[in-house]
Structure formats: C-alpha cells, structure tokens
Amino acid sequence: MRRAGLGEGVPPGNYGNYGYANSGYSACEEENERLTESLRSKVTAIKSLSIEIGHEVKTQNNLLAEMDSQFDSTTGFLGLCPT
C-alpha cells in the first residue's frame, strides 16, 4: 500500500525518515533507541544475576571444602577406633 505524499518531492536517498526529510524525526531512530534501552536493561539484569551466581558458587565451594575436611577427620577418627 502506498501512502499519499510519501517520497514525493523528497530527494532520492532520504526515505529513511519516512517522508519527513527535514523535520529531524525518524521512526527508525526512535525504535532503535527503544530497543537499545530494552537491551541495556536486559544486559544489566543478566550481569547482576551472573554476579549473584558467582557469589553462590564461591559459598557452595567453601561449604564443600569444609564438608570434605570434616569427612576426612571423621574417617581418621573411625580408623583409630578398635573393632
């Protein structure tokens, strides 16, 4: 469907502004800004989540190391008990 007036009287190559060659308005630019902001907020959320996961991994590794140490000491204690 062709809209009346779009492209008429506009020099070739200025169709990126959808017929608003000199007004500074660009629907593509506005959509790009909106999509960029949306992407920025998603990246920020993923970054925060990955940092939280990193902290959780460190905590779990410390707990596992502590459990390993306790199991080793328990194994040593049980090895000393007469049967």
Automatic annotation (TrEMBL):
Keywords: Coiled coil, Endoplasmic reticulum, ER-Golgi transport, Golgi apparatus, Membrane, Phosphoprotein, Protein transport, Transmembrane, Transmembrane helix, Transport. It is a single-pass type IV membrane protein. GO terms for cellular component: endoplasmic reticulum membrane; Golgi apparatus. InterPro entries: BET1_SNARE, T_SNARE_dom. PANTHER family: GOLGI SNARE BET1-RELATED. Required for vesicular transport from the ER to the Golgi complex. Functions as a SNARE involved in the docking process of ER-derived vesicles with the cis-Golgi membrane. Interacts with SNARE complex members GOSR2, SEC22B and STX5. Interacts with LMAN1/ERGIC53. Interacts with STX17. This is BET1 homolog. It comes from Callithrix jacchus (White-tufted-ear marmoset).
